[in-house]
Design goal:
The chain is an alpha+beta fold and 503 residues long. It has 3 domains: 2-76, RNA polymerase II/Efflux pump adaptor protein, barrel-sandwich hybrid domain (OB fold (Dihydrolipoamide Acetyltransferase, E2P), Beta Barrel); 98-182, OB fold (Dihydrolipoamide Acetyltransferase, E2P); 281-501, Chloramphenicol Acetyltransferase, CATH 3.30.559.10. Helices cover 22% and strands 29% of the residues. The chain contains 9 helices and 26 strands. The strands form 7 sheets. It has a 6-stranded mixed β-sheet. The chain has a 4-stranded antiparallel β-sheet with strand order 1-8-6-3, with no helix packed on it. The longest helix is centred in the middle third of the chain and has 18 residues, at 309-326. The protein is globular. The termini are far apart. The relative contact order is 0.09.
């Protein structure tokens, strides 16, 4: 009996995941609860364990994006752990016996929304003998790269070339099936003729650049005929293209000309090379969601400025005693969180969201805190922040930020926020327009603190000022509400005693 393993439900707002890696190989025996693969969502990475013991049959490849409930693999419970596949490599070599059957290999279906792929590279050459399930090529879609395994054993006959764009089910190659691999005795009839042929003719790959190499040569203005390939059968690889230098033009005698400035000579240690890296699943998902927010919301941004002197003086006066008593520093985030919670309760539309044709208002304030993690931007949530003290907020900020930087945040810790705070000031940002964290309706951007001359009671004073930016969805939040919310936050921050007295 075979058991289908499907993508589990990993969070309310998560509808799809990407297979990051398989921990076991196709056909391998696994025990119940063994970790078999790692999945990535736009919020976290998590592992999948085998539900039963048996032989694994992989249905989705690394890089595939699957919806919740999609089939990952099958596990055949009938196969015991002691069973091993028969190995043919120890059998004595015999001459290849062609069966006469021509197996046509076509582009496989690699995803519901994928209609075409690009043949990236052949790992086998035309005429090579290939084994069943041996990887013979790599194909690329707009979402991932896939290995193409041989569907039979025999001689490979290539039909599509590297760089070709093929539709699903298009013919990619043929395999002349045979019972066993060819041996040297097969070529013993005419060895001299075979050798001389190889010496006098080149493979189709000779001097041919891979797609990546061709792009690099084109950017450098170098013709492929000027580059010696080091790949299989003389193919020009990406590394060949990166190290290639344009040949100097032949010297031509000319008449003496007027003196001219020479091009500057670039000194040693200066690199002009480029490197390319595939986008991670998290980065691709974040990119898609940010573009979706820009296209699907009526987003506006309103600005104000805050005199940070009162908070800075309060922190300077009590920060040592605060840290000594509570074991955590007194930062700006607790002041901004408390100020926003107060303003959100006075202007509930800023704390609301749209769900199809309904407006959802929240009586609580779950404040999302944007944190820059190694894998990208994550947004953990401080639950019911309106009910927490300054000490509790500071400890929760430290706890969530530490888990984010260690990539240990859970799904529950990153979903369900009602309003977001993002602090670009820690990186030196003076002003920005943050993008709404959907499905929320507003986000407050904090920036760096800069001393500026300000007019106070008819006199000029140098004050530490910060710009605040509130981006909001105009479909649910009107201008009066957004501006009034930001003014209220400004009042509370410039007179922090209001936070303590609730006025």
């Amino acid at each position: 009996m075979s058991v289908e393993m499907k993508v589990p439900t990993v969070g309310e707002s998560i509808t799809e995941v990407t297979i990051a890696s398989w921990a076991v190989e196709d056909g391998e025996f696994v025990e119940m609860d063994d970790i078999i693969c790692e999945l990535e969502s736009d919020k976290a990475t998590f592992e999948v364990a085998a539900e039963v013991s048996g032989q694994l049959k992989i249905k989705a490849q690394e890089g595939d994006t699957l919806e919740i409930g999609g089939v990952l693999c099958e596990i055949d419970e009938k196969v015991s752990g002691t069973a091993k596949p028969k190995e043919t490599k120890d059998a004595p070599m015999t001459e290849s016996k062609p069966t006469g059957e021509i197996l046509e290999m076509k582009v496989p279906t690699v995803g519901e929304s994928i209609t075409e792929v690009t043949l990236s590279v052949w790992t086998k050459a035309d005429g090579d003998f290939v084994e069943l399930d041996e990887n013979i090529a790599e194909i690329e879609s707009d979402k991932a790269t896939f290995d193409l395994p041989a569907e039979g054993q025999g001689i490979l006959r290539i039909v599509a070339q590297e760089g070709d764009t093929l539709e699903i089910s298009a013919l990619i190659c043929k395999i002349e099936t045979s019972d066993s691999p060819p041996t040297e005795t097969q070529n013993s009839d005419q060895p001299e003729a075979r050798n001389s042929e190889h010496e006098t003719s080149n493979s189709y790959a000779t001097g041919h650049a891979s797609p990546a190499a061709a792009k690099i040569l084109s950017e450098k203005g170098i013709d492929s005929s000027e580059v010696a390939g080091t790949g299989r059968d003389g193919r020009i690889t990406k590394e060949d293209a990166m190290t290639a230098q344009k040949s100097a033009p032949k010297s031509v005698e000319s008449k003496p000309a007027a003196p001219a400035f020479e091009a500057p000579v670039i000194g040693g240690g200066v690199s002009r090379e480029q490197r390319r890296e595939k986008m991670s699943s998290l980065r691709k998902t974040v990119s898609r969601r940010l573009v979706s927010v820009k296209n699907e919301t009526a987003m506006l941004t309103t600005f104000n400025e805050v005199n940070m002197k009162p908070i800075m003086e309060l922190r300077k006066k009590h920060k040592e005693a605060f840290k000594e008593k509570h074991g955590v520093g007194l930062g700006f985030m607790s002041f901004f969180t408390k100020a926003c919670c107060t303003a959100l309760q006075e202007w509930p539309a800023v704390n609301a969201m749209i769900d199809e044709n309904e407006l959802v208002y929240n009586d609580f304030c779950d404040i999302s805190i944007a944190v820059s993690a190694p894998k990208g931007l994550v947004v953990p949530v401080i639950r019911s922040a309106e009910s927490l003290s300054f000490v509790q907020i500071e400890k929760e900020v430290v706890r969530l930020a530490t888990k984010a930087r260690d990539n240990k945040l859970s799904i529950d810790e990153m979903q369900g926020g009602t309003f977001t705070l993002t602090n670009g000031g820690v990186f030196g940002s003076m002003m920005s327009t943050p993008i709404i964290n959907a499905p929320q309706s507003a986000i407050l951007g904090m920036h760096n603190i800069v001393e500026r001359p300000m007019a106070v009671n008819g006199e000029v004073e140098i004050l530490p000022m910060m710009y605040l930016a509130l981006s909001y969805d105009h479909r649910i939040i009107d201008g009066r509400e957004s501006v009034s919310f930001l003014v209220r936050v400004k009042e509370l921050l410039e007179d922090p005693s209001r936070l303590l007295l609730g006025v």
